[in-house]
From TrEMBL:
Family the UniProt entry places it in: Belongs to the short-chain dehydrogenases/reductases (SDR) family.
Protein known as: SDR family NAD(P)-dependent oxidoreductase
Keyword terms of this UniProt record: Oxidoreductase
GO molecular function annotations of the record: oxidoreductase activity, acting on the CH-OH group of donors, NAD or NADP as acceptor
SUPFAM superfamilies on file: NAD(P)-binding Rossmann-fold domains
Top-level taxon of the source organism: Bacteria
UniProt-listed PANTHER family: ALCOHOL DEHYDROGENASE (PTHR42901:SF1)
Gene3D superfamilies noted in UniProt: NAD(P)-binding Rossmann-like Domain (3.40.50.720)
Keyword RNA-binding in annotation: no
Keyword Oxidoreductase: yes
Amino acid sequence: MSEQKVAVVTGGSAGIGETTCRALANDGWKVVVAARRLDMCQQIADEIGGVAVRLDVGDRGSVEKLAELERVDLLVNNAGGAKELDYLRDAQDEDWQWMFETNVMGTMRVTRALYPQLKAAKGLVVNIGSVAGTDAYKGGSGYNAAKHGLRGVTRAFRREEAENGIRVCEIDPGRVKTDFSLNRFKGDEARAREVYEGKHNLTAEDVAEAVRWVASLPAHVNIDTMSIMPVDQAER
């Protein structure tokens, strides 16, 4: 690739990931749009002059393929999600395993795989966390645990790599109106719609603008954490 700076965005085919890809491209980045749905990644990449890559963060082979990129200046670990709103007494092993695999293990795999490129570039890693990683709510124990885990990973990695010039940031959105709840409730549109009705909600663009801004700062500036919530989400 050329001297143009390269950004990799996981979960880049929709929602916060897609809008982040577009915001970064508008700021002059060469964006690698990475997600499981290659056709959607390709459509976005074609529109923004980027590169489409099929990526499943739960598949080590898929992640290792991503590591063939020659240059990475920015990694946005956006792939993640939640499953259901079960109380701990009703927890499903497979839902918890998926949340940890996607939110925690996936972030670890991708960051580890791209570490040589990030170190060479003295790059930036932005992990998309959640206010669920700093607080807890009924029915959220699995997602809370996963996002608290991601927060621990982020803070440790920040300390580990400060001397190498790698910047590490966690952006923690509150209620964002995307397909997040639809995916959480496994396609139940009524339950998903109820989460957002009658409320002021963040948009995916709001979060993407935060990523774009963090990525635009000079190399000596590190935004450790940023919480972004709609005005009516002062408490749960």
